[in-house]
Specification:
mainly beta, single chain, 36 strands, Neuraminidase, 4 domains, 438 residues, six-stranded mixed beta sheet
Length: 438
Amino acid sequence: MRIESFSVGEDAIYVANYRGVSVLDFQGGDIGKFDLPEEERFHESYGAVVAAKRILALPVYGKNYGRLYLLWRGIIPIFNLTYSGEGAISPKVSIAYGKIYVVFYTHNRILLYKLHDIEKPVIVSVEAASEIYEGEELVVKATIYDNRSGIYRALLAYSVDGGKWNYADMELERRYIIEPVCGYGLSEEPYVGKIPAQRAGSRIIWRIIAIDNVGNYIISQEHTCQVVEKRDVNPPTTKALYEDIWHNEDFTIALEAEDDLSGVAETYYRINNGVLKRVSVDGHPLITMEGANNTLEYWSVDKAGNEETHKFITGIKLDKSKPIANAGQDLKANVGDVVVLDASASTDNIGIVSYEWDFGDGEKGTGVKVTHTYEKAGTYTVTLTVKDKAGNVGIHSITVTVAEAVTEVFPTSLVIAIVILVVIIVIIAILVLRRRHS
């Protein structure tokens, strides 16, 4: 690419040749380009390109006319000025102090044009607190625009207790996916700036300076903000680490308190409406009383004297008593008999929730009443395990003696019939003998 001219802008390098402009970043990467119409040419000997911030002035010529393009970022045309005449060449251009000077040439005439923006930016509104707490930043918001060249920069100037002035850039509160042609600030845009936190008693004086893209600026009136000591008016908050379940041994309920300013001075509590206790002295609440209706009242106080609304936990459950398991009496049975086991005589103060049986032969069962059949003779230990709601366990064992089944030689009914027949015969014989003697 043949280079006729180049100029350096605010954030790009503009390289011109006879057919247009190529725009490069400071690392040499391509940003974009502007191509001239076929009938127009650029020639540096007639007029060089000139950059001012993000605007590029490109002088060109055509047949019997000269033209000046103003290109946003060297790519997008935002304005052009043309003068026609016999022998017209590219105009010469200069930019200074917010003004653009253009000189057009023909065979018999030289014309000077002055393009300028003399309008200051407009600060539509400002917003900031007149009083802040120590440790807080002062946030300043403003709506600003410049309808000629757009906003180049918005500054937040501030002084603390009459000291030196400090300057901080204000940022746009919103940005668009595609930057507007000619940049931001041609229409009303919200800006925000922040002044660092100051100590209590400080007095901040601040004002806004808005500068457009040709150097016009406006300074807002002064505003003041007083920094005051932050007063703690909010009570602390306390959280109890408690699960609403049955416990089977003494347990602690941890109380965690937080305060966002002065800090927690103390956490207090009462168990079952009893003696007032303090965590720092007595430790966290320890639940030792059995029952399903224990209560805990707790609250905290911060160092500024703010007291939290008292909180309550009811229905705190503790059961340290084991259930009493009762599997019944020892039993005897034969192989193949159905053995009935009954745990209904088992008791517990809060209620049994599970019954587990171990029949002693490798088999197990569950339930209040169960049945089991033993396949081999022997002596078996049957173990009943019961659990209550708190997980307490009770165990009871009985012995089941199992004998081999007896095999009958004669059917029982036949034996009974024979016995009855023998009795009848004996009775008849006795009666006959008595008659003979008589």
